[in-house]
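Students often ask why inverse folding is considered easier than folding. One informal answer: many sequences map to the same fold, so there is more than one right answer. In these notes we will look at a single instance of the problem. The structure comes first.
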């Protein structure tokens, strides 16, 4: 799926501060490195959900060669919905186009692209993989 580079720095007073390279307004902290990673996942998920719900551009994750960077994945539902939307837009398709190709109604497909509501079955994922000609899961 998707993962964003986050810069982890030890704070003078203890703990770690976390700043996302591609989303500078997304900042968090944690008492330990593991706590900071958990907080980073929560912060990233909340920020991506917020950007998506306000129909703002979600930046593509970049690559970093820095030693103080960890790649953080957002919540699976958010990552899945964003990935679908990006694939659909890359192919120049509307939600209605995808729904028709899947042989489902448009409101059903809208739910799949909604990070709060997405919960596709394996059958639905199989249809999506055929429409987009790519694998979303592998077993």
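Output (designed amino acids):
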């Amino acid at each position: 799926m998707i993962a964003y580079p986050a810069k982890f720095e030890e704070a003078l007073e203890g703990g770690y501060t976390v700043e996302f390279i591609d989303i500078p307004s997304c900042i968090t902290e944690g008492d330990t490195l593991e706590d900071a990673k958990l907080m980073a996942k929560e912060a990233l998920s909340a920020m991506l959900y917020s950007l998506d719900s306000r129909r703002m551009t979600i930046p593509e994750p970049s690559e970093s060669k820095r030693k103080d960077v960890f790649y953080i994945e957002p919540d699976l539902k958010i990552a899945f919905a964003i990935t679908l939307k990006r694939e659909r837009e890359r192919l120049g398709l509307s939600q209605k186009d995808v729904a028709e190709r899947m042989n489902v109604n448009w409101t059903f497909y809208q739910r799949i692209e909604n990070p709060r509501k997405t919960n596709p079955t394996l059958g639905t994922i199989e249809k999506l993989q055929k429409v987009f000609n790519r694998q979303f899961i592998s077993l």
